[in-house]
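A quick aside before the break. I want you to see a complete sequence-to-structure record at least once, exactly as it would be stored in a machine-readable document. Don't worry about memorizing anything.
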Amino acid sequence: MATTRLHALDAIRGFALLLGLFVHGSMSFWPGLQDYGFPISDISKSTTLGMMFFVLHMFRMAVFFLIAGFFAHLSLHRKGPADFLKDRLNRIALPMIIGWGISLVMIIPVALWAASKLYGVDYLSALESAPQQDAPSSPLLIHFWFLYYLLWFYILAVALSVMLSKLDSRGRLMTMITSAVFSLCRYGVLVLITTGISAWVFYQREPWLYWAGIPTPTEAVWNEAPAFFIYGMAFSIGWFFDRERECFNILKNHWLAYLVIAILATLISMTRLDSSNMISTGYMTDVEKLNFAMWYSLASWCWIFGLVGAGMKFFDQENSTRRYLSDASYWIYLAHIPILFFLQTLFMDIPLHWTIKFPLILLIATPVLLWTYKHWVRYSFIGNVLNGPRQRPDNLGST
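That is the input. The structure line, written in tokens, reads:
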């Protein structure tokens, strides 16, 4: 693989993170979410935005973890276990801890403001009386769960690598597994295996929020084992793709076929959903649930492999705009929730249709986040932690 193709992977990873603006920016418009204690509830509801979330959530974070697995193997090979873990603690653990605390302090007042607008003066009582059965777990980690998971994956990957290097110093086992992954990818069997495994994991989950698809692990690893397993599988695939980069060429050559299947499987899975309430569970029989899990999993993995392949085909050349957005995406994802929640609360009771309010929220939030990245982050100590040190263009003559 040519070195320039790393630009494609950077762009794909940034793209996956930036889609978080669309996902979280739509939450206040989802039907049924307010019934379970989420107070930022707009008067204009939209099943269309719920469907947008359903589709984006099929692949967004799985694509991110696949690319993260690739770069993790690349970095571990270059730095060694000790320096790799030290680097990950600085760039992942530190932003997670500090960002989580700051975000929580900013979100709580906004949530209380939204609750007062939704429920009136007795909003605390209304929040306490919200149904708990089958409700989404409390967002203790909020959107920082992905960093929490990354730390687990890094620790497990390093531990296994060190153990295997001692037990199998010649690397025969890893070579054999890598060769198997390549063959499965080459003959199109990898997507069938990941689909089957994911479908079985989903089928075993009780209760399963069908609209949510892959559960959002906001609390802990053991509370959302399906998410940990599926995202871990994506991370592992990315890990082996760095060992055999020809897999990316295979995805590049078949990206269109994967995306066509993804679209068809997505449409079929959508026909099984209850459009009246995104939070409802248990309305499928066991056979219907297994059928839905199969179609959903097939759509998810075809989206993942198809989008990675398309990224390799169309984003394999360096582009300053894409590189800038990719650099900014980490900060934007860390900082976006409080801003989006504030804007959603501000607009939630204004009598305008969601087709006006949702784009307006994004059009306000995105420039604000980009402005903060440019002036507060890119050339500051925050940027040094998140993306490494940079010099201002007046010192370099370029960005």
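Two observations worth writing down. Residues 15 and 248 are 17 Å apart (CA to CA). The chain has one domain: 23-311+349-355. We'll return to this after the break.
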